[in-house]
Every structure is written in structure tokens, then in C-alpha cells.
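Support reply, case 0932

Customer input (verbatim):
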Amino acid sequence: MKATKKLLMATVGAAFTLLGTVSSAPAQASLFNFSFQFNAQETGEPVSGNFVFDDSIQAGVTPDGATLYGNASPEYTINAGKDIFKGSSNSIVVGSNLARPDNSGLSADVIGFDDFKNFNPSNPKFLATFAYLPNSLGSNALSDLVTTLPSSGFALINTPTGATLSSTNAFTSISRVPEPASMLGILMLSALGIRSLVKRKNWSLD
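Our regenerated output:
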């Protein structure tokens, strides 16, 4: 039993050492997951989904002073009732004190997602727009959203089929997408530990 405990402790220790090595490596591009959910006030149906985004994309500027990150979102999923929409290569716009997308005349900090392939500047409709109280985002940097994003806000989804779904109380969150290297390392260490346990059949479990 003592030998078994020692092996397990060694395996766990090695896993933490690996994670420490990965986390102390030079900073590189990171993928994050922007998640949302709400009940659409138009239909009453639940709407949820996520946009994966890369925080290393170089920033540009839109005519109204917002920050544009071209093709920063490599994939997205929108679940609207029984419909599921998936896509890729969406750009992200982050702006402070912009007009809220519901024509309410109110100002808001805005995050918008769209591929801009058929975007009409005279009648702008983002695939997904999320609006928060003015000055709540802190900055327009994607890397800052991880710590500054409010947990709720206004949401407006224009689905690829033309449906409009919105809510004044949508829940939003951002989490880091696990890095493949750290996940693979943990799996390999776990496999090695199990293999060693199987080989040592003569160990006592008493």
C-alpha cells in the first residue's frame, strides 16, 4: 500500500511540475471561449452558444472608433431552440460607449461577432452582439475581457436563417481553452502511472 501511495504521489508531483513548466513558458497566443445563454424575448425559447477567439490577433480600428480583430474567432456555435448553427472565421468588434444595437438610443460597451462577407454598413446587423453598461469593459483589448467581462448584459442574435433573438438579461462568461500540450502531458503521466501499477502485481494492498 505504501509503495502504491508513493507511485501515485510521484505521478501527481510530476503532473504539477509539467503544468508549472508550461505556465512559466513565454507568453503565446491563447484561445478563449466566450459563452452565452438566455431566453429569447421574441419566442421564449432558450438560446445558448459560444465563440472561440484568439487574443493574439492584431487590432484595427473601425470608422466609429471601435477596435476590430479580423478573423479572430475560428469557430462558433449558436443553439436556438431546435436549430443549431455553426461557423468559423468571424471577426470581433469591441467598442466603448457605442449606440446599443436595439435602437434604444442608449450607449453601451459592445462586443460584436460577424464574418462581414455580406455586411451592409448602412444597415449593420452582426451575427451576435452583446452590450453592457458604459465603461464596464475597461478596455477594448481581447486579453482584458477575461477579467472585465460582466456576467450579464443585452444580447442580440441574428441567425443565418434571418431570425432575430434578443434578451436584456443574457448571461455571458469567458474561459480559457485548455492548451493541448498540458492536457497531453497529464494524460501521458496518468497512463504511465497506471501501467506501473499493473506491472507491480506483487505489491500488497493491505
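We compared this against your earlier run and they match. Two observations from our side: The CA atoms of residues 46 and 78 lie 11 Å apart. Residues 2-24+181-199 form one domain. Please reopen the case if you see a mismatch on your end.
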